[in-house]
Amino acid sequence: MKNRIKVLRAEMDLTQAQLAAKLEVSRQTVNAIEKGKFDPSLPLAFKLSHLFGKTIEEIFQNEI
Amino acid sequence: MMKQTDKNWCDNTRKNTVNLAYWTGAWVLTMALVSFGPKFLWNENIPLTIIAILVNLAIGIGVIFANKRHLNSLDELQRKIQLEAMSLALGVAVIFGLSYSMLDVTNLISYDAEISHLVILIGLTYLAGTIIGNMRYR
Questions:
Q1: How far apart are CA B82 and CA B71, in angstroms?
Q2: Which residue of A24, A27, A41, A51 to mutate against B (max B Cβ within 10 Å)?
Q3: B88 Cβ partners below 8 Å, 6+ apart?
Q4: What's the rounded Cα separation, in Å, for the pair A33 and B49?
Q5: What b/e readout covers B78-117, taking b as 16+ CB neighbours within 10 angstroms?
Q6: DSSP characters for B18-33?
Q7: For chain A, which domains are there?
Q8: Which positions in chain B touch A38 (Cβ < 8 Å)?
């Protein structure tokens, strides 16, 4: 699944570690999600949505 | 408030990991005590051996709960890595463990199939699975 987390994170001037701390996950998890290696759960996707002030569809795009 | 929560999550994960390490260390020590104590420390005294085994068992139960708390404190990716490593270790334990046992039963190996060999195999497989998982999602 593609996502815009890296761009949105940069817009908020957050490092991966800072974003991870806000989401209560490890930096490794943020990195894996950004790179599309790991798809987050729905609760974590909602946390991202709330944090960035975007809908889930605006953050994640299905690659099908 | 958010900062405090972030700190709490990290601290909680760290605390549970250290806690698991302490429980595991204590369990290994009591395992050594049960293995070597009867011969080297209390001259095969049966009540002392039973007490040592019960202490080992009690601490082993503590390890199980500490491991559960540790897993619950991980985030979803870390849990996925652990789950994949555990499924690999379980599969290897069942398949290779039974094949190893068959080798012993059919006398194709000259020595007894020891449970300790299986435990070492499980441990190494779990370790390899965790390392591979962490590398995959790095």
A1: 8
A2: A24
A3: B125, B126, B128, B129
A4: 52
A5: bebbbeebbebbeebbeeebeebeeeeeeeeeeeeeeeee
A6: HHHHHHHHHHHHHHHH
A7: 2-58 (1.10.260.40)
A8: 77, 80, 137
Q: Which two tokens stand for residue A12?
A: 């908020």
- B7 Cβ partners below 8 Å, 6+ apart? none
The torsion region of residue B50 among left (phi > 0), alpha (psi -120 to 50) and beta comes to: alpha
State the Cα–Cα distance between residues B108 and B85, nearest whole angstrom.
31
Chain B residues with CB under 8 Å of A44 CB are 76
Instruction: Give the residue among A36, A49, A39, A52 at the shortest CA–CA distance from A2.
Output: A36
Dump pLDDT digits (tens) for A1-59.
Answer: 899 999 999 999 999 999 999 999 999 999 999 999 999 999 999 999 999 999 999 99
Whole-number average pLDDT of chain B: 92
Determine whether the interchain pair A32/B76 forms a contact, defined as Cβ–Cβ distance below 8 Å: no
The predicted structure's pLDDT at residue B21: 97
The amino acid sitting at B108 is L
Number of Cβ atoms within 10 Å of the Cβ of B8 = 12
CA–CA gap between residue B29 and residue B33 (Å, rounded): 6
